[in-house]
Amino acid sequence: MTLLNEVIRRPLDPGYAMVAERRRSQGDPPRSTPRRVVLLLTAVGLGLATTAATLALRAPEPSVLAARSLLEEQITERTAAVERLREENADRSREIAELQAAVLAAEDTELLERIAADSLVSGAVPVTGPGLRITIKDGPPRAPGDEALSRVQDQDLQILVNGLWAVGAEAIAVDGQRLTSTTAIRSAGSAILVDLVPLSGPYVVEAIGDTQKLHTGLARSSVGTYLSDLTVSWGIGVDISSQSELELPSAARPGLRSASVPLGVPLLGGATQGPVGTGTPTGTVTDEQQDPAGSGG
């Protein structure tokens, strides 16, 4: 309170008061108005000069602006070209599938049915049908430092997916990524990868199959107990819902480098695979035949 009272009574520092009193006693004239105006104008001029210099230093060079504009145009053009090529590739794939189906339907209907069944299993074609949709999301940390324990791990998705296959799922996708027999689910740091595609939570697992069979089988299996433990122990959210219709995309197709027919297998039109050592065998497709540039199909 003493300090506050002192500040209120004597707001001016005693040193300033002493200097002012000494100047008055020595007869020094007070600062004139023109001098104050000059000081004010000088301060304003220095401030404007500093601001102008700062803006000049921060402004990009014309060459930098031109390079950035050119780079943006190239990115736009290349992106449009990639989209166009992707659409053309999808159209060619559909044409190939239609021609293949037409030829096989006339030559070998049994082979066509086997290819259709294998395409479903391998994930080569998109599928629709009833099934389950399971959403898993990270739980709140129970204590400081438990963030990793309350987060969905790659092994959680692995156990769930394997459990769905075991109870009769016909097709499965995780966040829109179709799973096949060669799909890998693993982690890279804090991210979960499905065939090198990073996913982010909440994770949506969709499985096509007999809805009642999937739901009952999952609840009675060890996977159901595992999911329940995730919720009780770590607060990880698990929501299972039955869906009358799910749409799963096809899996990413590997690039075709070469293809050949085993020896003795008849080809369409009655030709057979030629013997080894006679150059390019009959029925063999090489990179050069698919693409003159050697990039493969």
From TrEMBL:
<keyword id="KW-0175">Coiled coil</keyword>
<dbReference type="InterPro" id="IPR010273">
    <property type="entry name" value="DUF881"/>
</dbReference>
<feature type="coiled-coil region">
    <location>
        <begin position="68"/>
        <end position="102"/>
    </location>
</feature>
<protein>
    <submittedName>
        <fullName>Uncharacterized protein</fullName>
    </submittedName>
</protein>
<dbReference type="Pfam" id="PF05949">
    <property type="entry name" value="DUF881"/>
</dbReference>
<feature type="transmembrane region" description="Helical">
    <location>
        <begin position="37"/>
        <end position="57"/>
    </location>
</feature>
<feature type="region of interest" description="Disordered">
    <location>
        <begin position="267"/>
        <end position="297"/>
    </location>
</feature>
<keyword id="KW-1133">Transmembrane helix</keyword>
<keyword id="KW-0472">Membrane</keyword>
<dbReference type="GO" id="GO:0005886">
    <property type="term" value="C:plasma membrane"/>
</dbReference>
<feature type="compositionally biased region" description="Low complexity">
    <location>
        <begin position="269"/>
        <end position="286"/>
    </location>
</feature>
<keyword id="KW-0812">Transmembrane</keyword>
<comment type="similarity">
    <text>Belongs to the UPF0749 family.</text>
</comment>
